[in-house]
Amino acid sequence: MEEIQEEQIIKKLYRAVTFAKSSIVCPSCFMKIDRVVKTCPRCQFSGAVAIQRYPFPAPMMVRFMDDKDIFDSRARQAISNRLTQLEERFPQVRICFCALELPEHVDLREFGYWLFNASPVEDSVEAGKRPWTILLLLDHVLGRVSVTSGYAIEPFVRDDQWVNCLRIDREYFFKRDYREAGLRFIAGAEKILREGANRAELKMSGQMKRKKRMRSRKEKKA
Amino acid sequence: MKAVIVFFISLCLVFSQEERLPSALPSKPDGHIYDPSGWLLDERRTEIEETLGKAERQWSVRLFAVVLERNPAGGAEAYARMLGRSWGGEGVWGVIIHVPGIEGTPWCVAERGSMVKWASKESFDEAVKAAMDRTRREPAERLRLKVACKELTDELGFLGLKEERIEKKFGEAGNEGVEKAMDQHSNRRVLFVGVPLILLIGVVGFFVLRRKLRNRKKPFLFPETEHRVRFQGPWSGGGNAVLRFTRKVGKDGSRRG
């Protein structure tokens, strides 16, 4: 797993907690944690532990990580077209689909965390995109699906929204209609992002107003 | 000379005729019957009074039954007219004179008066004539006055009813006209107020919708935030969104989860 230097981190304008709605959960033991930690206080899980558990190279983070063509060409085409539309509305956001087969003891959330972080970042473009990535992980054999999102998009979405979105698509996943399931997932993701965008806009405008008020008060005092 | 003598003789005859007419008319009776001799039986009197009272109540037609012992000198019709003008007032009136034992009795004179607009003189006179014709067909002389009163009441009542209906119709038509005019007025008001209002709402709605659609299509950039870097993950701290879409099947075929 690559280590990111502090200097490389994009300059922040807002604190994540301004928008963040999701609580922090350990991807291994799923304990809720009220602060940012390097290792889980309960199970001691961390990136290093994940590397030890999955000691093989992660694939490149692309739109479809699907060696066994679970998403056929027709599905890929339809999903790609829909994703292009979504990216026009939300240019920062990227959605990736990964279809694989995992042993039953491997939890999809933990594996998603590993894949998200272990996937190589070879250039600045990828470095810019990765925090805005939403990864849909599909275990087509055991019939499991999970969503992992990057740090940048995380404050604007919630885990329960993703679960609801997946629940709505459950029927199509169950029928192995991955084209329809993918399309519906994108539609659900767009709705979640739109809600997040509206919330962010409201917060920002509220902050702007507050700042203006403060500034005018200061000017009056001066 | 002869002509002067003829003139004076005819003048005397005229005056003598005038003299023969009663100098003072009897005063208007309390009800509708003038029968100083008491020729009418009480029962019949009541019936006639009811009939003529009904005509006055319902259609404001004043009818009088007059029983005389002998034919008035100037003629029954002339006398009836004088009585009618005296008792009837300005409205519709009719006087039926009955002289028992005289052929052709009873006689009737009726006038529309100045207030009446509805029935034409012809139809009025026709109604009176029809009533009297039917009366004269009655063989029993004692019943003729009653029949005359009834027939005249019916005829004039029919005309009155007709008038009532016409008035009602005109009234309704008038009301309808007023209502129609009011409707038109309110419709015009609705048009004057409603149409611009609808247009305004439409225009505002159009712009709001357009703005919403534009916003929907407009690229949105999420604000940059401070990454909550955790568990030593450089890009993501993982998530808790997972869903199983098939049931677990055990080795023995049983379903779990």
Return the string of H and E elements of chain B. HEHEHEEHHEEE
Alpha carbon gyration radius of chain A: 19 Å
How confident overall, as mean pLDDT of chain B? 79
**DSSP helix count of chain A?**
7
| Straight-line N-to-C gap of chain A | 53 Å
Most extensive chain interface and residues per partner: A-B, 82 and 33 residues
Q: How do the strands line up in the largest sheet of chain B?
A: 1-2-3-4
Unreliable spans of chain B: 15-21
Describe this structure as you would to a colleague.
In chain A, helix 3 runs parallel beside helix 7. Chain A contains seven helices and six strands; from the N terminus they run αββαβαβααββαα. In chain A, 47% of the residues lie in helices and 12% in strands. Chain A has helices at residues 16-19, 47-53, 73-89, 108-118, 124-129, 159-174, 178-221; strands at 24-25, 32-33, 64-65, 94-100, 133-139, 144-149. In chain A, the strands form two sheets. In chain A, strands 3-4-5-6 form a four-stranded mixed β-sheet, sandwiched between helices. Chain A has a two-stranded antiparallel ribbon with strand order 1-2. Chain B is of the alpha/beta class and 257 residues long. Chain B is 55% helix and 11% strand. Chain B contains five helices and seven strands; from the N terminus they run αβαβαββααβββ. In chain B, the strands form two sheets. A four-stranded mixed β-sheet of chain B has the order 1-2-3-4, sandwiched between helices. In chain B, strands 6-7 form a two-stranded antiparallel ribbon. Chains A and B meet through helix 1, strand 1, helix 2, helix 4 and strand 6 of A and strand 5 of B. Strand 6 of chain A pairs antiparallel with strand 5 (241-244) of chain B.
